[in-house]
Amino acid sequence: MTTQNVTIPALSGGSFSAYLAAPSTQPRAGIVLIQEVLGVNNNMRQTADDYAKAGYLVLVPDLYWRLEPGVELDPEDENQWAKAFELLGAFDVDSGIEDLKATLPVLRQYPSSTGKVGSVGFCLGGKLAYFMATRTDADANVSYYGVDIDKNLAEATKIQKPLILHMSENDEYVSPSAQATIQQGLKDNPLVTIYRYEGVSHGFSRVGSSAYRKEAAELAGDRTLAFLKQHLG
Q1: Are strands 140-144 and 163-168 parallel, antiparallel or unpaired?
Q2: What's the average pLDDT block by block, 10 residues per block, for the chain (233 residues)?
Q3: 231 in active site
Q4: Which of 62, 171, 222, 231 is catalytic?
Q5: 202 has catalytic annotation
Q6: Residue 109 CA to chain centroid, in angstroms?
Q7: Taking the complete model, does pTM exceed 0.90, yes or no?
Q8: Within its chain, how far is the Cα of 215 from the centroid?
Q9: Where are the domains positioned within the chain?
Q10: Candidates 3.90.226.10, 3.40.50.10420, 3.40.50.1820, 3.30.2010.30; correct CATH number of 2-232?
Q11: Alpha helices in the chain (DSSP H)
Q12: Cis bond leading into 27, ω under 30°?
Protein backbone atom coordinates (compact mmCIF):
# COMPACT_ATOMS: atom_id res chain seq x y z
CA MET A 1 0.00 0.00 0.00
CA THR A 2 1.14 3.55 -0.75
CA THR A 3 -0.16 6.92 0.44
CA GLN A 4 0.23 10.48 -0.79
CA ASN A 5 -1.51 13.83 -0.92
CA VAL A 6 -2.97 14.76 -4.32
CA THR A 7 -4.53 17.94 -5.68
CA ILE A 8 -8.00 17.90 -7.24
CA PRO A 9 -9.41 20.72 -9.40
CA ALA A 10 -12.68 22.06 -7.98
CA LEU A 11 -15.63 22.27 -10.38
CA SER A 12 -16.13 25.93 -9.39
CA GLY A 13 -12.46 26.89 -9.77
CA GLY A 14 -9.53 26.57 -7.45
CA SER A 15 -8.29 23.24 -6.13
CA PHE A 16 -8.20 21.21 -2.94
CA SER A 17 -6.04 18.48 -1.49
CA ALA A 18 -7.02 14.89 -0.82
CA TYR A 19 -5.33 12.03 0.97
CA LEU A 20 -4.88 9.05 -1.35
CA ALA A 21 -4.34 5.50 -0.12
CA ALA A 22 -3.62 3.01 -2.90
CA PRO A 23 -3.46 -0.78 -2.50
CA SER A 24 -0.79 -2.90 -4.12
CA THR A 25 -3.44 -5.07 -5.82
CA GLN A 26 -4.93 -4.40 -9.27
CA PRO A 27 -7.47 -3.74 -10.70
CA ARG A 28 -9.09 -1.58 -8.05
CA ALA A 29 -12.48 -0.07 -7.34
CA GLY A 30 -12.52 3.37 -5.72
CA ILE A 31 -13.94 4.80 -2.50
CA VAL A 32 -14.50 8.47 -1.74
CA LEU A 33 -14.07 8.56 2.03
CA ILE A 34 -15.96 11.52 3.46
CA GLN A 35 -14.67 13.30 6.55
CA GLU A 36 -16.39 13.93 9.85
CA VAL A 37 -16.72 17.46 11.22
CA LEU A 38 -13.12 16.98 12.42
CA GLY A 39 -11.46 17.32 9.01
CA VAL A 40 -9.01 14.91 7.39
CA ASN A 41 -7.42 13.85 10.65
CA ASN A 42 -5.45 10.79 11.76
CA ASN A 43 -8.61 8.75 12.15
CA MET A 44 -9.74 9.43 8.57
CA ARG A 45 -6.29 8.57 7.19
CA GLN A 46 -6.22 5.34 9.19
CA THR A 47 -9.69 4.45 7.92
CA ALA A 48 -8.52 5.13 4.35
CA ASP A 49 -5.48 2.91 4.90
CA ASP A 50 -7.71 0.11 6.18
CA TYR A 51 -9.89 0.26 3.07
CA ALA A 52 -6.78 0.31 0.90
CA LYS A 53 -5.55 -2.83 2.65
CA ALA A 54 -8.91 -4.37 1.72
CA GLY A 55 -8.10 -3.64 -1.93
CA TYR A 56 -9.75 -0.27 -2.59
CA LEU A 57 -8.28 2.93 -4.00
CA VAL A 58 -9.33 5.56 -1.46
CA LEU A 59 -9.49 9.37 -1.68
CA VAL A 60 -10.28 11.56 1.34
CA PRO A 61 -10.94 15.11 0.08
CA ASP A 62 -10.38 18.14 2.31
CA LEU A 63 -13.91 19.55 2.28
CA TYR A 64 -13.09 22.47 4.58
CA TRP A 65 -10.60 23.96 2.11
CA ARG A 66 -12.73 27.03 1.41
CA LEU A 67 -12.85 27.81 5.14
CA GLU A 68 -9.45 26.61 6.34
CA PRO A 69 -7.31 24.09 4.44
CA GLY A 70 -5.71 21.20 6.29
CA VAL A 71 -7.98 21.04 9.34
CA GLU A 72 -7.20 18.09 11.66
CA LEU A 73 -9.12 18.07 14.94
CA ASP A 74 -9.20 15.77 17.97
CA PRO A 75 -12.72 14.92 19.23
CA GLU A 76 -11.36 14.32 22.75
CA ASP A 77 -10.17 17.95 23.04
CA GLU A 78 -13.06 20.23 24.07
CA ASN A 79 -11.67 23.29 22.30
CA GLN A 80 -11.05 21.38 19.09
CA TRP A 81 -14.53 19.82 19.26
CA ALA A 82 -15.98 23.33 19.62
CA LYS A 83 -13.96 24.46 16.60
CA ALA A 84 -15.35 21.52 14.61
CA PHE A 85 -18.86 22.81 15.21
CA GLU A 86 -17.86 26.34 14.24
CA LEU A 87 -16.55 24.98 10.94
CA LEU A 88 -19.68 22.91 10.49
CA GLY A 89 -21.81 26.03 10.97
CA ALA A 90 -19.87 27.83 8.24
CA PHE A 91 -19.69 24.83 5.89
CA ASP A 92 -21.68 25.03 2.65
CA VAL A 93 -23.16 21.60 1.97
CA ASP A 94 -23.84 22.20 -1.72
CA SER A 95 -20.23 23.24 -2.35
CA GLY A 96 -19.05 20.19 -0.45
CA ILE A 97 -21.13 17.92 -2.65
CA GLU A 98 -19.66 19.61 -5.74
CA ASP A 99 -16.18 18.82 -4.39
CA LEU A 100 -17.19 15.20 -3.83
CA LYS A 101 -18.48 15.07 -7.40
CA ALA A 102 -15.06 16.31 -8.55
CA THR A 103 -13.37 13.35 -6.85
CA LEU A 104 -15.40 10.73 -8.72
CA PRO A 105 -13.71 11.11 -12.14
CA VAL A 106 -10.28 11.27 -10.48
CA LEU A 107 -10.88 7.79 -9.08
CA ARG A 108 -12.63 6.45 -12.17
CA GLN A 109 -9.82 7.54 -14.47
CA TYR A 110 -7.01 6.48 -12.17
CA PRO A 111 -4.59 3.99 -13.78
CA SER A 112 -5.74 0.42 -13.07
CA SER A 113 -9.12 1.63 -11.78
CA THR A 114 -12.10 -0.60 -12.56
CA GLY A 115 -14.23 2.53 -13.03
CA LYS A 116 -16.48 1.58 -10.11
CA VAL A 117 -16.55 4.13 -7.28
CA GLY A 118 -18.53 4.26 -4.07
CA SER A 119 -18.56 6.50 -1.02
CA VAL A 120 -18.32 5.95 2.72
CA GLY A 121 -18.97 8.86 5.07
CA PHE A 122 -19.12 9.47 8.82
CA CYS A 123 -21.14 12.08 10.76
CA LEU A 124 -21.15 15.16 8.45
CA GLY A 125 -19.75 12.72 5.89
CA GLY A 126 -22.65 10.38 6.59
CA LYS A 127 -25.04 13.15 5.58
CA LEU A 128 -22.96 13.81 2.47
CA ALA A 129 -22.90 10.08 1.61
CA TYR A 130 -26.71 10.24 1.52
CA PHE A 131 -26.42 13.15 -0.93
CA MET A 132 -23.91 11.11 -2.95
CA ALA A 133 -26.77 8.64 -3.37
CA THR A 134 -29.32 11.29 -4.33
CA ARG A 135 -27.20 13.71 -6.41
CA THR A 136 -24.38 11.72 -8.04
CA ASP A 137 -23.82 8.55 -10.04
CA ALA A 138 -21.59 6.90 -7.39
CA ASP A 139 -22.10 3.13 -7.62
CA ALA A 140 -22.78 2.43 -3.93
CA ASN A 141 -22.87 4.59 -0.81
CA VAL A 142 -22.50 4.02 2.93
CA SER A 143 -23.57 6.51 5.60
CA TYR A 144 -22.42 6.17 9.20
CA TYR A 145 -24.55 8.13 11.71
CA GLY A 146 -25.45 10.76 9.12
CA VAL A 147 -27.03 13.93 10.47
CA ASP A 148 -30.05 15.82 9.05
CA ILE A 149 -31.08 13.02 6.68
CA ASP A 150 -34.61 13.28 8.09
CA LYS A 151 -34.78 16.85 6.74
CA ASN A 152 -33.79 15.78 3.22
CA LEU A 153 -36.01 12.77 2.54
CA ALA A 154 -37.68 14.53 -0.40
CA GLU A 155 -34.51 13.69 -2.37
CA ALA A 156 -34.84 9.95 -1.71
CA THR A 157 -36.79 9.48 -4.95
CA LYS A 158 -33.56 10.25 -6.82
CA ILE A 159 -31.63 7.32 -5.31
CA GLN A 160 -30.63 4.99 -8.15
CA LYS A 161 -27.79 2.99 -6.55
CA PRO A 162 -27.62 0.97 -3.32
CA LEU A 163 -27.29 2.85 -0.02
CA ILE A 164 -26.61 1.67 3.55
CA LEU A 165 -27.45 3.81 6.58
CA HIS A 166 -25.72 2.80 9.82
CA MET A 167 -27.66 4.45 12.67
CA SER A 168 -26.78 4.69 16.39
CA GLU A 169 -29.74 4.04 18.71
CA ASN A 170 -28.51 6.66 21.20
CA ASP A 171 -27.20 9.19 18.65
CA GLU A 172 -27.12 12.54 20.43
CA TYR A 173 -27.30 14.38 17.08
CA VAL A 174 -30.09 12.31 15.50
CA SER A 175 -33.08 12.14 17.84
CA PRO A 176 -35.32 9.05 18.16
CA SER A 177 -38.07 10.93 16.29
CA ALA A 178 -35.63 11.84 13.49
CA GLN A 179 -34.55 8.20 13.26
CA ALA A 180 -38.19 7.10 13.09
CA THR A 181 -38.82 9.65 10.33
CA ILE A 182 -35.86 8.30 8.33
CA GLN A 183 -36.96 4.68 8.74
CA GLN A 184 -40.55 5.49 7.80
CA GLY A 185 -39.49 7.61 4.84
CA LEU A 186 -37.13 5.01 3.37
CA LYS A 187 -38.72 1.68 4.34
CA ASP A 188 -40.28 1.10 0.92
CA ASN A 189 -37.11 1.91 -1.04
CA PRO A 190 -35.54 -1.38 -2.18
CA LEU A 191 -32.15 0.31 -2.70
CA VAL A 192 -31.84 1.42 0.94
CA THR A 193 -30.77 -0.81 3.84
CA ILE A 194 -30.90 0.60 7.38
CA TYR A 195 -29.00 -0.94 10.28
CA ARG A 196 -29.56 0.31 13.84
CA TYR A 197 -27.04 -0.40 16.57
CA GLU A 198 -28.50 -0.66 20.06
CA GLY A 199 -26.93 1.08 23.02
CA VAL A 200 -24.31 3.05 21.07
CA SER A 201 -23.88 6.77 20.50
CA HIS A 202 -22.78 8.96 17.62
CA GLY A 203 -19.23 8.11 16.55
CA PHE A 204 -19.33 4.46 17.66
CA SER A 205 -16.99 3.54 14.79
CA ARG A 206 -14.37 6.24 15.55
CA VAL A 207 -11.37 4.21 16.70
CA GLY A 208 -9.47 5.67 19.64
CA SER A 209 -12.29 7.95 20.79
CA SER A 210 -14.48 7.70 23.89
CA ALA A 211 -17.48 7.01 21.62
CA TYR A 212 -15.88 3.89 20.08
CA ARG A 213 -17.72 0.61 20.65
CA LYS A 214 -15.76 -2.32 19.28
CA GLU A 215 -18.56 -4.84 18.76
CA ALA A 216 -20.87 -2.44 16.89
CA ALA A 217 -17.97 -0.96 14.92
CA GLU A 218 -16.78 -4.37 13.75
CA LEU A 219 -20.30 -5.48 12.81
CA ALA A 220 -20.87 -2.28 10.81
CA GLY A 221 -17.44 -2.63 9.23
CA ASP A 222 -18.12 -6.22 8.15
CA ARG A 223 -21.49 -5.22 6.68
CA THR A 224 -19.88 -2.31 4.84
CA LEU A 225 -17.11 -4.43 3.31
CA ALA A 226 -19.60 -7.11 2.20
CA PHE A 227 -21.78 -4.40 0.62
CA LEU A 228 -18.83 -2.78 -1.17
CA LYS A 229 -17.62 -6.15 -2.43
CA GLN A 230 -21.09 -6.91 -3.77
CA HIS A 231 -21.56 -3.60 -5.58
CA LEU A 232 -18.02 -2.46 -6.42
CA GLY A 233 -16.16 -5.76 -6.59
Answers
A1: parallel
A2: 96 96 92 97 97 96 97 94 96 97 96 94 98 98 98 97 98 97 96 98 95 97 98 94
A3: no
A4: 171
A5: yes
A6: 21
A7: yes
A8: 20
A9: 2-232
A10: 3.40.50.1820
A11: 42-53, 78-90, 93-108, 124-135, 176-186, 214-232
A12: yes
